[in-house]
Structure formats: structure tokens, C-alpha cells
Amino acid sequence: MSATPLTLTDEQWRRLKAPARRERIFRLVSYFSPLLLLLLWELCSQFNLIDRRFFPAPSAIAGTAWRMIVSFELFDHIGATLRRVGIGYVMGAVPGIIMGLILGLSRPVRRMLGPIFAALYPVPKIAILPLILLIFGVGDASKFVVIAIGVFFLMFYNTMGGVMQTPQIYMDVAKNAGATRLQIFRRIAFPAALPSIFTGLKLAAGSSYIIIAAAEFLGARSGVGFFIWASWQTFAVSRMFVGIVAISAMGYLTILALEALERRFVPWAKH
Fold first, then answer.
1. Which is nearest to 213 in space by CA: 93, 119, 81?
2. Which of 16, 79, 125, 257 could form a disulfide with 150 if both were Cys (CB 3.0 to 4.6 A apart)?
3. For 262, phi and psi rounded to 5 degrees?
4. In whole numbers, what is the pLDDT of the chain averaged over residues?
5. pTM > 0.70: yes or no
């Protein structure tokens, strides 16, 4: 008995294709929505619907950015900020991951040190910047330390949470099979915590740029944060917007790079 071929009406084909069509429309809107916002901003500025003193036209901001790019002034500030963020980020991320793994695996250590970290975490990192400036001075060392402190807690709690969420049956099977503590760490705890570690890395990257911008407001002679603050003091609003866009782009590109690494090293995680 031969099977009858399935035939669909035009209306049924349209219903089947509708979700894919909607997805393409949403994708196009997501691509062009920032451009539409910039166009609306430009039109409002050109027709004096907004105050140009505070919201200059995107075309004026782009012209300012181009002059700063040609003169390499913008790259000097970006380089200074990236160097501070990179060093402070590593200084905070490495010990944060290590301590998170230790406390996640050891309940006695977690009970002993957990309350200390819980008490220190809510303290605003910018609030202790004056103390850090007193101890480390107004040079780059104070910037490294304040970023490292902010990154440490995010990495610590995300890593510890990732380890603690590991199904206990995995640990029990490994112990029954005679696995050592190092093998449990390498084969079970660390891989299980990797998705949470990368989540912490992305959160810490965003926080690092927030912290460095505030730190460069007060005690720096270079960097994007210093550049934004100096532009505000001289009421150079276009230059200030260039700095805001620059630090936003730096954070966005950093998170994209971390997401690419996550897809490479944590292929089993949901993206």
C-alpha cells in the first residue's frame, strides 16, 4: 500500500512560514533600531526640538569623534583606560575564582569565611576610593586596586554558586570511584562552575568600566573617564558624548569577546 503524498494549501503554507517571517522582521528591527534612534535625535536637533547645548546632533558628535581619531587623542585615552581595566580585572578575577572554588567545595571554610565576604560585599566600591587613594596614591595602583575589589566579589560569588549547584550525585560517584580531591576539582567542580564563571566574567567586565570611569573622574590625568570629566568642566558637550560612546563601545566589545570565549570553552552551556 503506497503512502499518499502530503499536500498543503496556500493558507497552511503561510501559517508554517509565519514564525520565520516574524523572526526576520524582528531581526531587521533589532539591527536598525539604533539607527532609527540616531535619525530621530538628528532631526530633533536640526529642528530645535531639543536643546543643542545639552544634546548636540549626532552628526556634530561624529565630526568631533573623527577629529579626535585623526589626532590620535581618543586612542591615547582608550589605551590608558584599557590598560587599567585589564590589569585590575586580572588582579580581581583570578583570586575571586580561586576563593569561589575553595569555598564552594569546602563547607567548613565556607562557614568560616562566608560571613566576612557577605559583610564586605555590600560596601560600595566607589565609596572606599578615597581610602584607596590615601593608601596607594593617585597613580594607576589605586585604579588597579579598586577595579580588582569590584571584580573579586562578582567572580567569587558566581564561582561559588556554580560549584554549589553541581549535582551532589556527581561528587558521590567520583568519591566512590576513588577520585582524589584534585581529580574532583578538575573533572567535576571546575567544569560545572564554568558557565557561572563566564557569567561572572561578563558582569565583572561591565562593572570594571563603571568603576574605572568614576575612578578616573577623581585621580587621573588620562583615560576615558578623565576625558569625560574634563569635557564636562569645559562644557565641551560633543567631546563628552564621544567619551561616553567610547566607553560604552569598549564594554560592549569586551562582553562580545567573552561570549566568544564562552562558546569556545563551554560548548555545553546554553547561549
1. 81
2. 125
3. -65, -45
4. 86
5. yes
